[in-house]
Design a protein that fits this description.
With 352 residues, the protein is an alpha/beta fold. The protein is built from 16 helices and ten strands.
């Protein structure tokens, strides 16, 4: 995938004609020399450098300086725009967690992108101020050595401690966890919203004493299943895949997964907005998105990328057709309206 390449003279065509639609032409953009892009660091930086940063530099002449951002970027993003102290020009943001808040506050630069600019783009992966480029999913995973015959295939199975005894773990966060509790109680994945919060907590009451660990970070969740401390848990598919790649006997269950879309947003008012928007548009290209999947077990949002991804690798990604059809996106609007109250209740329930 790293060998995917587009000639400089084809750059405008490769990004859907985006440079031509921007206020500043390519030579002027290149004269600005650089943009600063923030991402979660680690494997993200490696994958994005190969798929996005280096190719954009080569085709545009604009240097991309990458920095690692805080795990929860909204506060930093808000302060940066309000003080006009732009320490970066583009950052990764999550649709369900970040975009509703930042859009409501008017802190994002409009991108001027349209769905027709990117044939194959998932409908949810574009707002007026944000372009989603990768998808991860919160899934059920289990140890095949601990459950060699019968194994869990749903959240109802996860909740069934008689049929599937053994230590298990859930995330210490209401997002995804409440949805899982409702599905365990019989709510269909396509009928989750608006969430019946009281019913979700009644369902959580049933499993509470059987949860060995309430995990708080991705590395912790991976270690729990990789070491065998738990037999099954809820975790992000990339972490589960990393455990599998490390030869742990782990299997991912895509059924009733809850996927999240990550993508690029530009802080409103950055003096390098046009360069930043050119970069964002570049990242919507199917071939470019195909390139990061060799390093990250996350799915592209431009589904045409699968034309350039090996079939064996594609089967491990959330947006592959056979995986995506079993999952859904948590409702961003519901979580925007209810996150604070539900989080306070969840935290009180955890320690109560």
């Amino acid at each position: 995938m790293s060998g995917i390449h587009v000639k400089r003279r084809s750059f405008v065509k490769a990004v859907g004609g985006g440079i031509a639609s921007l206020a500043m032409p390519l030579p002027a953009l290149a004269a600005s020399r650089q943009i600063v892009v923030s991402d979660p660091g680690g494997p993200y930086t490696t994958a994005y450098r190969k798929a996005f940063y280096d190719p954009f530099e080569k085709e545009s002449g604009i240097k991309v300086v990458s920095v690692a951002r805080e795990s929860q970027p909204v506060a930093q993003f808000t302060a940066m725009v309000q003080t006009r102290n732009y320490i970066w020009d583009v950052t990764t943001l999550t649709l369900s967690a970040d975009i509703p808040i930042l859009e409501q506050r008017g802190l994002l630069e409009p991108l001027g992108l349209k769905h027709e600019d990117f044939p194959g783009l998932m409908p949810e992966a574009l707002t007026p101020n944000w372009l989603g480029v990768d998808v991860y999913s919160t899934v059920l995973a289990y140890r095949t050595d601990k459950l060699p015959k019968e194994h869990p295939e749903s959240w109802a199975d996860f909740w069934d401690v008689k049929r599937f005894p053994g230590p298990r773990s859930l995330r210490r966060n209401p997002l995804d966890t409440l949805e899982q509790a409702l599905m365990a109680d019989g709510v269909s994945i396509d009928q989750l919203y608006p969430l019946d919060v009281d019913r979700a907590f009644r369902s959580l009451d049933k499993i509470r004493k059987h949860i060995s660990v309430w995990w708080t970070g991705g590395a912790q969740s991976m270690q729990l299943i990789q070491s065998g401390e738990v037999d099954m848990l809820s975790l992000w598919n990339g972490r589960a895949q990393a455990a599998i790649d490390g030869k742990a006997p782990v299997r991912i269950v895509w059924n009733q997964g809850l996927y999240s879309i990550e993508g690029w947003g530009v802080p409103k008012g950055t003096p390098r907005a046009e360069e930043a928007k050119a970069f964002v548009r570049f990242c919507g290209d199917a071939r470019r998105q195909a390139a990061f999947t060799a390093d990250l077990a996350y799915g592209p949002t431009n589904l045409r990328a699968y034309e350039y991804i090996d079939a064996a690798r594609a089967a491990l990604l959330p947006t592959a057709k056979e995986n995506l059809k079993h999952m859904r996106l948590p409702d961003p609007k519901w979580w925007q309206d209810n996150r604070q109250a539900v989080t306070e209740r969840f935290n009180a329930w955890i320690i109560g």
